[in-house]
Amino acid sequence: MSEIREWPRIAVIGAGAVGGYFGGMFVRAGAPTVFIGRKGFVDAVNANGLVLDKSHGQERIAARASTEMSAVRDCSLILFCVKANDTSATAKQMAPFLAPDAIVVCLQNGVDNADRVRAAANVVAVPAAVYVAVSVPETGRVKHLARGDLIIGPRSKITTELTKLFIRASIPCRISDNIEGELWVKLLRNCALNAISALGHTRYGEIAQNADAKQLMKQIIDEVLAVAQAAGIALPGIGDLESGMAAAMELATQMADALSSTAQDLDRGRSTEIDALNGYIARLGAKLGIPAPVNHALFTLVKLAEQKAVS
């Protein structure tokens, strides 16, 4: 990617809440952007534009959208925003249409998406820890509640240029030399909050004020940290249960009005990403000989709820 003068052509693959928000921020800034998503979203955006609903008011943005993966052709920056469960399959669908210089940024939950995109599509893939509270109250409208910042890495010429691009689009972004650790910090927070929010149908702020929920969070976090230690992962700023709990509570406070993405998926009758969250901890723990019964229980309960919601 050359020094920033002109915008690169951008494609957003998986235009849901996260893709709609970050893609919308690039459109707002003047970047040529195409959204690739479901027919309902595509029809709404092509007919009426994308509505960004922020605390200071709504903004309707003229945007271009397509249901065809071939729309990614000639785009040099891909914002990859599909559900973690769909990463490998979508990357394979994308691969034949990618420009030789394309860079994919994985704006997803989970810790191994960039690896899976690289394996499936043979492309430069950059992992990102994404912090944003967004929802889609109606097709073509993205409601922003809190934050909207990224951590990418590791430090390189590519990530330095990407950071400039994101900041130019008014998206706060910083580079970490321990991006794996940052992804695990996000995983810890997601494991601590997402399933409780989904199963209790409750917002983060309510979880943070409930003594029993906080006790459950501590058990979840204790298991996550034990699995991370066994896997040799260092989580920046988190060395024990107390600091892990503080990180989860910080997010719950910053995004007090947010329902987890897992809760939103169940509400909309869609598959969740619980396999990449508490399920990931349970599986990796079993592989490493580290028990994670609480994460396994939450994973199981969400999967049962998901079966009912999706059927």
Kindly report how far apart the N and C termini lie. 44 Å
Q: Please trace the helix and strand order, writing H or E for each element.
A: EHEHEEEEHEHEEHEHHHHHHH
Radius of gyration: 19 Å
Under CATH, the homologous superfamily of the largest domain reads: NAD(P)-binding Rossmann-like Domain
Low-confidence parts: none
Structure description:
It is globular, with a radius of gyration of 19 Å. Strands 1, 2, 3, 4, 5, 6, 7, 8, 9 and 10 form a 10-stranded mixed sheet that branches. The protein is of the alpha/beta class and 311 residues long. The chain has 2 domains: 10-177, Rossmann fold (3-Layer(aba) Sandwich); 180-310, N-(1-d-carboxylethyl)-l-norvaline Dehydrogenase, domain 2. Helix content is 48%, strand content 19%. The protein starts with 9 loop residues before the first strand and ends with a helix. It has 12 helices and 10 strands.
List keywords for this structure.
Rossmann fold, N-(1-d-carboxylethyl)-l-norvaline Dehydrogenase, domain 2, single chain, globular, 2 domains, 311 residues
What secondary-structure arrangement, pairings included, does this model have?
Blueprint: E1 10-13, H1 17-29, E2 33-36, H2 39-48, E3 50-54, E4 57-61, E5 64-66, E6 77-80, H3 87-94, E7 103-106, H4 113-121, E8 124-138, E9 141-152, H5 157-168, E10 173-175, H6 179-200, H7 204-208, H8 211-231, H9 241-254, H10 261-267, H11 278-288, H12 293-310
Parallel strand pairs: 1-2, 1-6, 2-5, 3-9, 6-7, 7-8, 9-10
Antiparallel strand pairs: 3-4, 8-9
Helix pairs in contact: 3-4, 6-8, 6-9, 6-10, 6-12, 8-9, 8-11, 10-12, 11-12
